[in-house]
């Protein structure tokens, strides 16, 4: 009988995944993006095939879906869905954020959790991969409505988490306010003070300094390493950053610190273009304090321009693009516009913000590309540092955490470049990140036996 090639094996496994996860387009996209990089790995490591590593790593250890019932300020009862995927605990407790957004589905949760496995492995820290959240929309809700929702959500989730089991953090729609409400409910239900059960807490309540900034800072640190290898830099570059949440704001802040001019950012309704450079302090005031839409930026900077088609942000000429909003925000058409405008580099600050077609357009045209599971790993890296500080009952200074973050991101970059070269694809950070993350998990799973 003809021996199955590595590619045939990968295709056969993914075919089974498609059959078992019908309609879960985001999850299928995420799994194939990793699988497609792994052909040389299975050629060199037949033991991975023998022990079914690919089949095991793509099936969650546990998927939890539950009802969340809460009451608004008018006394009306609402019902949302809550999720937690505990994907892989080979390296340590499940670790990954909670997202509150009306577009959240089981497929999105699974794609995020799957990506988290490899991202967490790349940090070199002892954490497994998980993700969760709800289709609840915090926009337009009062503080008390958000508190009631968070308490109801945590009443169920508290059964499944713990500092050595599963450690959630924040994501889109979940900041230190929401984490505070959930952490308070967890303590009430468990009658224990386990600071390490959540990360992203307020620094006054066991949170790490630089956690809010970490994903954005880390993305810029990674992209700067990639640029330096090609004789470029953020200095004197025009940069576009999509989004205006934590990742976007602090990617802008660090890029400006590195000498760049950030000319545009966005939110879910549109984008602002400021040729003189986006004023990050204004964006912070609007988004972190006043919780207003990005078009209010023009009230403070009337020379700026607003566009209500947020995808048009990618038609603005820039040297470096940092998509930091949400998944699949850059499609083939947007990528082509960026290439025509001679973009030099794209760094994924969000999770899977580029479609497969967009990535092909960018990489086939020589654009430097930093994939999300490597470039945006700074957030979870500092979350793991927060866990360490909680365990020690100790707090590091901002400078100490930032230095550790920089070290983690430069190490991830070197790991990706070295792995890509080792497996015959020098300079391809997508392949480098996928293989490096997969091998770390796979080797540990082999040593653990079947589970």
UniProtKB/TrEMBL annotation:
<dbReference type="Pfam" id="PF02812">
    <property type="entry name" value="ELFV_dehydrog_N"/>
</dbReference>
<dbReference type="InterPro" id="IPR036291">
    <property type="entry name" value="NAD(P)-bd_dom_sf"/>
</dbReference>
<feature type="active site" description="Proton donor">
    <location>
        <position position="131"/>
    </location>
</feature>
<dbReference type="InterPro" id="IPR014362">
    <property type="entry name" value="Glu_DH"/>
</dbReference>
<feature type="binding site">
    <location>
        <position position="246"/>
    </location>
    <ligand>
        <name>NAD(+)</name>
    </ligand>
</feature>
<dbReference type="InterPro" id="IPR033922">
    <property type="entry name" value="NAD_bind_Glu_DH"/>
</dbReference>
<comment type="subunit">
    <text>Homohexamer.</text>
</comment>
<dbReference type="InterPro" id="IPR050724">
    <property type="entry name" value="Glu_Leu_Phe_Val_DH"/>
</dbReference>
<feature type="domain" description="Glutamate/phenylalanine/leucine/valine/L-tryptophan dehydrogenase C-terminal">
    <location>
        <begin position="208"/>
        <end position="449"/>
    </location>
</feature>
<dbReference type="InterPro" id="IPR046346">
    <property type="entry name" value="Aminoacid_DH-like_N_sf"/>
</dbReference>
<feature type="binding site">
    <location>
        <position position="116"/>
    </location>
    <ligand>
        <name>substrate</name>
    </ligand>
</feature>
<feature type="binding site">
    <location>
        <position position="95"/>
    </location>
    <ligand>
        <name>substrate</name>
    </ligand>
</feature>
<keyword id="KW-0560">Oxidoreductase</keyword>
<feature type="binding site">
    <location>
        <position position="215"/>
    </location>
    <ligand>
        <name>NAD(+)</name>
    </ligand>
</feature>
<keyword id="KW-0547">Nucleotide-binding</keyword>
<dbReference type="InterPro" id="IPR006097">
    <property type="entry name" value="Glu/Leu/Phe/Val/Trp_DH_dimer"/>
</dbReference>
<protein>
    <recommendedName>
        <fullName>Glutamate dehydrogenase</fullName>
    </recommendedName>
</protein>
<dbReference type="Pfam" id="PF00208">
    <property type="entry name" value="ELFV_dehydrog"/>
</dbReference>
<dbReference type="InterPro" id="IPR033524">
    <property type="entry name" value="Glu/Leu/Phe/Val_DH_AS"/>
</dbReference>
<dbReference type="GO" id="GO:0006537">
    <property type="term" value="P:glutamate biosynthetic process"/>
</dbReference>
<comment type="similarity">
    <text>Belongs to the Glu/Leu/Phe/Val dehydrogenases family.</text>
</comment>
<feature type="site" description="Important for catalysis">
    <location>
        <position position="171"/>
    </location>
</feature>
<feature type="binding site">
    <location>
        <position position="170"/>
    </location>
    <ligand>
        <name>substrate</name>
    </ligand>
</feature>
<dbReference type="InterPro" id="IPR006096">
    <property type="entry name" value="Glu/Leu/Phe/Val/Trp_DH_C"/>
</dbReference>
<feature type="binding site">
    <location>
        <position position="383"/>
    </location>
    <ligand>
        <name>substrate</name>
    </ligand>
</feature>
<dbReference type="GO" id="GO:0000166">
    <property type="term" value="F:nucleotide binding"/>
</dbReference>
<dbReference type="GO" id="GO:0004354">
    <property type="term" value="F:glutamate dehydrogenase (NADP+) activity"/>
</dbReference>
<dbReference type="InterPro" id="IPR006095">
    <property type="entry name" value="Glu/Leu/Phe/Val/Trp_DH"/>
</dbReference>
<keyword id="KW-0520">NAD</keyword>
<feature type="binding site">
    <location>
        <position position="119"/>
    </location>
    <ligand>
        <name>substrate</name>
    </ligand>
</feature>
<dbReference type="GO" id="GO:0005829">
    <property type="term" value="C:cytosol"/>
</dbReference>
């Amino acid at each position: 009988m003809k021996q199955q090639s590595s590619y045939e094996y990968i295709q056969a496994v993914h075919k089974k995944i498609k059959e078992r996860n019908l309609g879960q387009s985001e999850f299928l996209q995420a799994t194939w993006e990793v699988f497609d990089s792994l052909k040389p790995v299975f050629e060199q490591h037949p033991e991975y095939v023998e022990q079914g590593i690919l089949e095991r790593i793509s099936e969650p250890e546990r998927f939890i879906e539950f009802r969340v019932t809460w009451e608004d300020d008018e006394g009306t009862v609402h019902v949302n869905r809550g999720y937690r995927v505990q994907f892989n605990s080979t390296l340590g407790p499940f670790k990954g954020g909670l997202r509150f957004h009306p577009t959240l589905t089981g497929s999105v949760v699974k794609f995020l959790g799957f990506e988290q496995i490899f991202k967490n492995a790349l940090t070199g820290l002892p954490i497994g991969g998980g993700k969760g959240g709800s289709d609840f929309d915090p926009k337009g809700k009062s503080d008390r409505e958000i508190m009631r929702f968070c308490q109801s959500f945590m009443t169920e989730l508290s059964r499944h988490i713990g500092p050595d089991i599963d450690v959630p953090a924040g994501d889109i729609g979940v900041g230190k306010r929401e984490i505070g409400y959930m952490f308070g409910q967890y303590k009430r239900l468990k009658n224990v003070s386990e600071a390490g059960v959540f990360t992203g807490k307020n620094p006054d309540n066991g949170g790490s300094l630089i956690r809010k900034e970490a994903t954005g800072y880390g993305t810029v640190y990674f992209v700067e390493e990639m640029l330096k290898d090609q004789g470029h830099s953020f200095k004197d570059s025009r940069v576009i950053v999509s989004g205006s949440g934590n990742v976007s704001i602090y990617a802008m802040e660090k890029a400006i610190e590195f000498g760049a001019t950030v000319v545009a950012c966005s939110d879910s309704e549109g984008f602002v273009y400021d040729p003189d450079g986006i004023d990050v302090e204004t964006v912070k005031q609007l988004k972190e304090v006043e919780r207003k839409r990005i078009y209010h930026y023009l009230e403070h900077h009337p020379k700026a321009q607003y566009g209500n088609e947020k995808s048009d942000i990618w038609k603005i000429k820039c040297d470096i693009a940092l998509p930091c909003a949400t998944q699949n925000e850059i499609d083939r058409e947007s990528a082509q516009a960026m290439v025509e405008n001679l973009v030099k580099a794209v760094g994924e600050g969000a999770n899977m913000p580029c479609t497969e077609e967009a990535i092909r357009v960018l990489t086939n045209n020589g654009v430097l590309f930093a994939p999300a599971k490597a470039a945006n790993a700074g957030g979870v890296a500092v979350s793991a540092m927060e866990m360490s500080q909680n365990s020690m009952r100790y707090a590091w200074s901002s400078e100490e955490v930032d230095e550790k973050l920089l070290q983690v991101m430069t190490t991830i970059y070197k790991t990706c470049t070295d792995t890509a070269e080792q497996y015959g694809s020098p300079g391809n950070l997508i392949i480098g990140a996928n293989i490096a993350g997969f091998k770390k998990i796979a080797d540990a799973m082999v040593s653990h036996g079947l589970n």
